[in-house]
UniProtKB/TrEMBL annotation:
CBM2 domain location: 392-500
Catalytic activity line of the entry: Endohydrolysis of (1->4)-beta-D-glucosidic linkages in cellulose, lichenin and cereal beta-D-glucans
SMART domains, per the entry: CBD_II (SM00637)
A Pfam family annotated for this UniProt entry: CBM_2
EC identifiers of the protein: 3.2.1.4
An MF annotation (GO) of this entry: polysaccharide binding
Signal peptide range in chain numbering: 1-22
Keyword hit for Nucleotide-binding: no
One BP term from GO: cellulose catabolic process
Protein's name in the database: Endoglucanase
Length: 500
């Protein structure tokens, strides 16, 4: 994602029930079990945090140290309930000899004076550990301030340089207990592909770098983002930079240590770019559909955990599209139990602002209130507060609807279909449930926009309450799913019925 100012590091927070007396750092190392990140004792661990950027810029140090001491900054992060930090860096920073933008007046930041960028990173990580904060390292770019570059190589750096940079950091921090993850590349986009086997194949590169890191730092999580361009079997038309993880359906990442893999989409609102889905007739339903098809299916299938590496925006109220989006996404994250790191701690992120205001000390209280509600996994309202309650639903029964199953994508071992519903009546009406028959040998491997109940060949799908009414004569896409082939052939749904 393009940003007006510098990129920020990820601060990750983990707020879950811990054994009595255990600190956050003592719960490391982390690993995965199905769709869940777990601590060393096998207990669920939800990463919740913020990005603090600057190492990836020409300053070669976290921003804001011109205004405050780094120890004070990290202590405030911890007090607000975050318990990890995502630190973006550039490959150029790893080779640099000096920093800038750090104030040493009055004894401030004294421990950083005269140190190289890597030595400053050493001290930031060490102090984070003393504050009981975990650290996720994020390769944001090759060159300084190069976040708009699409690939993991370029600007004078090769793929070998990128892998070597990660190996350098793995050797440096493999034994540092609060360094828990490597986010291999921020937001691959543009020329990046998935599963093509070419030089631009991000899946191939992530497997290479991930295994190289794990060979040195086997305790680290390996965080893999998506791409922007199209992938085989893609269901959504477009994605954010690094947000397209639909390639995982057919071509999942294969690591030597599979229980360290975490997938990481990025999600933003119209304050970053006014995507067409923010003008949809039913924005909440459209967003829920995008998240289900775009990345949540990975967790729903138990394939791997999700860590939303970046999301954020300036507006938080229900009176703006961005505010409603931000609230709905936080509510979604809390309900699904996904890990996340908020963008950003820094106030100088031009598109989103930060948790801190421009004085680098005062917090944005509205943002903090929402983030702390998310930390507690509380429901977050995102609609208009004065909206009247919906009328009671009519009793269940047949409706004036016709449903058809439409093939959306197909490959050698599987296929995906969507169920489209047409209102054949004379008044607007909302479908509530779908019923159909499916060959018992066909397993629904992932689905979206509905809750599935199955008994043998009989399948009933309860549609989300957010699904809107369909006008007379109009059609709407509803439920969708992906399934296996039987004997090399797909077996489509039969006897489709729409119920209230």
């Amino acid at each position: 994602m393009a940003r007006t100012l510098a990129l920020l590091p990820l601060v990750l927070t983990l707020l879950v029930a811990a054994p009595a007396g255990a600190t956050i750092v003592e719960r490391a190392p982390l690993s995965t079990s199905g769709a869940t990140i777990v601590d060393h004792g096998g207990r669920t661990f939800v990463i919740q945090g913020v990005n603090w950027f600057g190492f990836e810029t020409a300053n070669h140090a976290p921003h804001g140290l011109w205004a405050r001491d780094y120890k004070d900054m990290l202590a405030q992060i911890r007090r607000l309930g975050f318990n990890a930090v995502r630190l973006p860096f550039s490959l150029q920073m790893l080779r640099a000899a000096s920093t800038s933008g750090i104030d040493y007046g009055g004894g401030r930041n004294a421990a950083l004076q005269g140190k190289s960028p890597l030595q400053v990173m050493d001290e930031i990580i060490a102090e984070a550990g003393r504050q009981d904060l975990l650290v996720v390292l994020d390769n944001h770019s090759t060159a300084d301030d190069g976040f708009q570059s699409d690939l993991w190589y370029g600007s004078g750096f090769s793929e070998d340089d990128w892998v070597a940079g990660w190996q350098q950091l793995a050797r440096r921090y493999a034994s540092t207990p609060n360094v828990v993850a490597a986010d291999l590349k921020n937001e691959p986009h543009g020329a990046a592909t998935w599963g093509t086997g070419t030089a631009t194949d991000w899946r191939r590169a992530a497997e290479r770098a991930g295994d190289a890191v794990s060979a040195i730092a086997p305790r680290w999580l390996i965080v893999v983002e998506g791409i922007e361009g199209r992938t085989d079997g893609q269901l959504l038309a477009t994605h954010w930079w690094g947000g397209n993880l639909e390639g995982v359906r057919r071509n999942p990442v294969r690591l030597a240590r599979a229980n360290r893999l975490v997938y990481s989409p990025h999600e933003y609102g119209p304050g970053v770019f006014d995507q067409p889905w923010f003008s949809a007739a039913d924005v909440p339903a459209t967003l829920a559909d995008r998240w289900a098809k775009g990345f949540d299916y990975i967790a729903q299938a138990g394939t791997a955990p999700i860590l939303v590496g970046e999301f954020g925006g300036r507006r938080t109220g229900t009176d703006t599209v961005e505010g409603r989006w931000q609230r709905q996404f936080m509510d979604f994250l809390g309900r699904r139990g996904h890990s996340w790191t908020y963008w950003a701690w820094n106030p100088n992120s031009g598109d989103t602002g930060g948790v801190l205001r421009d004085d680098w000390t005062t917090v944005d209280t509205a943002k903090v209130a929402l983030l702390q509600a998310l930390q507690r996994r509380e429901a977050i309202p995102y609609g208009a507060a004065t909206a009247p309650p919906p009328p009671p639903p009519p009793p269940p029964g047949p409706t004036s609807f016709k449903a058809v199953a439409k093939l959306q994508s197909e490959w050698s071992t599987g296929w995906c279909a969507g169920l489209a519903v047409t209102n054949t009546g004379t008044t607007a009406d909302r479908p509530a449930r779908l019923r159909f028959r499916l060959d018992e040998r066909v397993a629904i491997e992932s689905s979206w926009n509905g809750t599935v109940t199955r008994t043998g060949p009989k399948v009933v799908v309860t549609l989300p309450s957010s699904a809107g009414a369909i006008a007379p004569g109009a059609s709407a896409a509803t439920f969708g799913f992906c399934a296996n082939k039987v004997g090399g052939k797909r077996k489509m749904p039969r006897e489709l019925v729409v119920l209230r």
